[in-house]
Amino acid sequence: MKIDFAKAGGLVPAIIQDHRTGEVLMLGFMNEVSLAQSRDSGEVVFFSRSRNKLWKKGESSGHVLKVREVRVDCDGDALLVRVEAVGPGVCHEGYRSCFFRTLGSDGALDVNSEQVFDPQQVYKSEESR
Predict the structure, then answer these.
(1) pLDDT category of residue 27 using cuts at 50, 70 and 90
(2) Which residues, other chains included, contact 53 with Cβ-Cβ below 8 Å and sequence gap of 6+?
(3) What pTM was estimated for this model as a whole?
(4) C-alpha 44: how far from its chain's center?
(5) If we measure between CA atoms, which residue out of 8, 7, 26, 28 comes closest to residue 17?
(6) Chain segment 85-123, per-residue pLDDT in tens
(7) What is the pLDDT of residues 36-64, one digit of tens each?
(8) DSSP string spanning 38-96?
(9) Under a CB-based contact definition with an 8 Å cutoff, are residues 45 and 110 in contact?
(10) Which of 58, 78, 110, 113 has the CB geometry, 3.0–4.6 Å to 100, for a possible disulfide?
(11) Alpha-carbon distance 42 to 21, whole Å?
(12) What is the rounded distance in angstroms from the CA atom of residue 127 to the CA atom of residue 108?
């Protein structure tokens, strides 16, 4: 089976999961080039839709994601990338996981985790996120 990059305009969602704990850390998107670079380098490379370019996770923070395994879903249009996260967290808001909020039955968002790093210190050289 081939990965179906054409179905969603050249991109496939890539769910990033801690290979030891099973915790979902983030969701990103990959194109053929970013997937190939991830496989070749052993560190996750995404395609940024907002920047319209490739970006290696951790290029500014140092919080890289080391690829341990890549799984493809049954339709060939989504990836599960099992990683070893280097650094305290992967979220640009300072949390271990980007999924640090819970949606309540009333529609309110509640923070369910503690910040593990100060994003202003880690990303101080970036102009915007």
Answers:
(1) very high
(2) 47
(3) 0.91
(4) 8
(5) 26
(6) 999 999 999 999 999 999 999 999 999 999 999 999 988
(7) 999 999 999 999 999 999 999 998 899 99
(8) HHHHSB-EEEETTTTEEEETTTTTS--EEEEEEEE-TTSS-EEEEEEE-SS---TTS-S
(9) no
(10) 113
(11) 20
(12) 30
Report the alpha-carbon distance of residue 96 to residue 22 in Å, rounded: 13
Any idea which residue has 């890549």 for tokens? 70
Q: Which residue has the tokens 């099973």?
A: 22
Decide if 45 contacts 34 (C-beta within 8 A): yes
103 token code pair? 């949606």
Kindly state the DSSP code that residue 3 receives in the 8-state scheme. -
Residue type, 41: S
> What token pair was written down for 51?
């920047």
Give the C-alpha distances (Å, rounded to integers) separating 4 from 10, 34, 70, 91: 8, 14, 15, 27
